[in-house]
Amino acid sequence: MGSPLFSSSGEIQGDILFRMRNSYVEIQHATIEWFRKNQRRDLPWRQSTVSSESLLPTNSVSASCVPNPYHIWVSEVMSQQTQMDTVIAYFKKWVSLFPTIATLAEASEDSVKSAWSGMGYYRRALFLRKGAQYVVENFAGKLPNTAAQLQKIPGIGAYTAAAIASICFGESVAAVDGNLVRVLCRLRCEREFDPKLPKNIKTAFLWGQEIVAAGPCESVGEFNQGLMEIGARICKPAGQPLCGECPLQHFCGAYSAKLRGELAAIEGIIPLRAKSVKKKQERVLSVVHEFRPSCEPNHTLPRRFLVIQRPDNGLLGGMLEFPSLTYISSCEREFDPKLPKNIKTAFLWGQEIVAAGPCESVGEFNQGLMEIGARICKPAGQPLCGECPLQHFCGAYSAKLRGELAAIEGIIPLRAKSVKKKQERVLSVVHEFRPSCEPNHTLPRRFLVIQRPDNGLLGGMLEFPSLTYISSSSHSLNSTEEDESLRRLCKRLGADHGNLVLIGHVRHIFTHIDMEVRAYHAVWKCSSADNSNGKAGVRTVRSCVNDVERLVSTSLATELNIAASRIFIKSEEEIRASAASRLLLKILSNVTSDCVDNATVNHENDQMHLFNSLSLS
């Protein structure tokens, strides 16, 4: 909860992030300086430059020669899934065969596949060719100079676009690959962070962008490349990171946590180690058909064979193979139905059946499979195979009959692992503003609320100012530490209010979080609300119209490091009619009860402290 400055790792991590944010420019300088001294100089694409005048207008005004964008593009695509030493040889071969984007666009598909042969993942080569054709048709053969435009090119994703735009054109954009995700994770001491989840990769991009945007970066391209090399060579994915050699050691939250004894080790914990994937076991039957002229007993004519071109998508997309069929596969026996890539795979299986021939009613076919899955081939308990209309076509049922499976349920597909809910304790302060000339409180009650970030938990919803002080993913606190943490948070969220009144504890259970909120109430005396409309009983309450509201809002915006535009003053009626979370409404119900109201009113003696102190300053 609360500002995006504080993640679920709790108040301790919040302090780490606060200190780190003040060091963003230093992190830039340290990374660039290290890269200039330690970069790999044997990479041919780093030695290849072109005149900036030959490119589209660039964001870098000083460079007369810049890295060749085409070469950077090719190197980035080749570096995906391939060791760097292997890439160097293939890169040299590639640029000798296809020296420019135009020559690649004109090349045949077979020549492109041949140049790529042996590196695997052939779709990368085909996308390079397709992308080159797009650049020739739409950008006159020159790569565009922004990440946004580069992503329009087939085969260029967010990372590759950012790498080209920053290295070649100086655009201030973070290029976040697996190495950067790991480095940023450790800098921030992010625990329980799975670097393989797409949403987490997006989150890591925002972390990187925050550093890049902190100030005018001397060289964004060198900063991105520096972080990549630090991730590959020092803050390594496997084995113990070489913290003693790291130029970012003094800014690293994970390193500090290890020194304090909060972490036994960094590797495998920050970020989480990716689960090892067991290789699929397949047995395939293949038949090689050869054709020979009957009148050629000496076989002097070329031998001829029948080959089949594989589908463009999937394994060995578009490549040639001999006629083959899989007759044993372990793939569906270790199939996790929760993985996004597996959901896409299952879609292709279904599409294969639908596309097999003219379907009498695709809608009824889809609905039929859904009902069979819900009522017969059930997610929990033993499936009712005897009632299933697809029993005779079912591989799992046949495997069970043959004794290869003891049971189907929980094995095909794999049973989803039960996820233990994260335990969080949150401190929340409800700031209420009351006109000093209204002792009977007949005017609408007004409260300060914050709009949460658009992404993440309760995205875009309203909440009272809140911060997490204990999380099951963070270092556990003893009672003394907990009291001290609460005291600090009350000071930060209380905006220097003299008497915060505890109104109780509210428990709220999300899908993956069990949250207990410790709620406080702060009542501020302020000038009258606007009554200009003249209608009895109806008063227009405007956001932040008086000095007290404005000063409290400014204080919280500074403490929580959020934009003032995300802070609002609303009446109870307006809150209930807007995008308020159920958690906020629970707390609001406690605040607006008579007993809490009376208790709070009795503690209003020092409410003008903030107003007086800030006004004098």
Automatic annotation (TrEMBL):
It catalyses: Hydrolyzes free adenine bases from 7,8-dihydro-8-oxoguanine:adenine mismatched double-stranded DNA, leaving an apurinic site. The keyword Iron-sulfur applies. Its cofactor is [4Fe-4S] cluster. One of its GO terms (cellular component) is nucleus. Its EC number is 3.2.2.31. It is an enzyme of class 3 (hydrolase). Keywords: 4Fe-4S, DNA damage, DNA repair, Glycosidase, Hydrolase, Iron, Iron-sulfur, Metal-binding. Residues 78-233 form the HhH-GPD domain. GO terms for molecular function: 4 iron, 4 sulfur cluster binding; 8-oxo-7,8-dihydroguanine DNA N-glycosylase activity; adenine/guanine mispair binding; metal ion binding; oxidized purine DNA binding; purine-specific mismatch base pair DNA N-glycosylase activity. The keyword Transmembrane does not apply. Belongs to the Nth/MutY family. This is Adenine DNA glycosylase.
